[in-house]
Amino acid sequence: MMERARAWAVRARETLDDPAADAGTVVASLRDIARINRTFGGTAAATRRLEAFLAHERPGSAFTLLDVGTGCGDIPRALAERAARRGITLRPIGVERHPAAAREAAHTGALEILADGTRLPLADRSVDFVLCAKLLHHLPGDAGTRLLRELDRVARRAVVVADIRRSFLAAAGLWLVSYPMRFHPATRRDGVISVFRGFAGAELLAACRAAGVDAAVRSHPGWCLTAAWRPAEGRA
Fold first, then answer.
1. What does the DSSP assignment read for 154-202?
2. Do 164 and 223 touch, CB atoms closer than 8 A?
3. Which of 4, 52, 16, 65 is nearest to 186 (CA)?
4. What are the domain boundaries of the chain?
5. Are 73 and 67 in contact (CB under 8 A)?
6. N or C terminus: fewer CB in 10 A for the chain?
7. pLDDT digit string (tens) for 32-50?
8. β-bridge mates for residue 219, sequence order
9. Which homologous superfamily does the CATH classification assign to the domain defined by 2-230?
10. Is pTM, for the whole model, over 0.90?
11. What per-residue confidence (pLDDT) applies to 232?
12. What is the pLDDT of residues 141-153, one digit of tens each?
């Protein structure tokens, strides 16, 4: 049953898969996703993994944080706020391929780059930390491998990838809460697709290994998975 659900989801097309999608629908969906991140643990999972790397950095330090597929820019903003409490400055840079998404994220004050995450217009080791949240499940197979390699290529210190742990319960729960939370209809449909496109922990680890990165994969509350690693040139 799960394999059939996953096969359906892989064939389906989400609103955010379409670069020509209606701008208003894209923004509404991204705002809903930001609420999902805050409510169901996506932000907390990404924050926890990045803070493990920041724990080794001195107060007064300043770093760049590249967020590939930044959406509303909600997660890097939360990360920057948490880092500031440690006396560390994080300067967010967002990457989006949809112009409406890039404009929405720019409201957070981050520098925005309009680009494809599998072909980042950045030099090797040009940013300190790299985040990629809930994008990998949109890119199966070779496209996902290219994305992970790009994240590793541009990072100096560490990479954190956050995504969804596949679950019937998560899909049903998201569908049900979408009504009282007044999600856009596109979010309701796309959210279920995204859950079934998600990963088991072993699958996320295998995807990282296929890209040649040595990641530590962890499961978090709210059906969240993260993979984190130091790029080869950043390892002690």
1. HEEEEEEEEEEB--HHHHHHHHHHTTTTT--HHHHHHHHHHHHH-B-HH
2. yes
3. 16
4. 2-230
5. yes
6. C
7. 999 999 999 999 999 999 9
8. 225
9. Vaccinia Virus protein VP39 (3.40.50.150)
10. yes
11. 81
12. 999 999 999 999 9
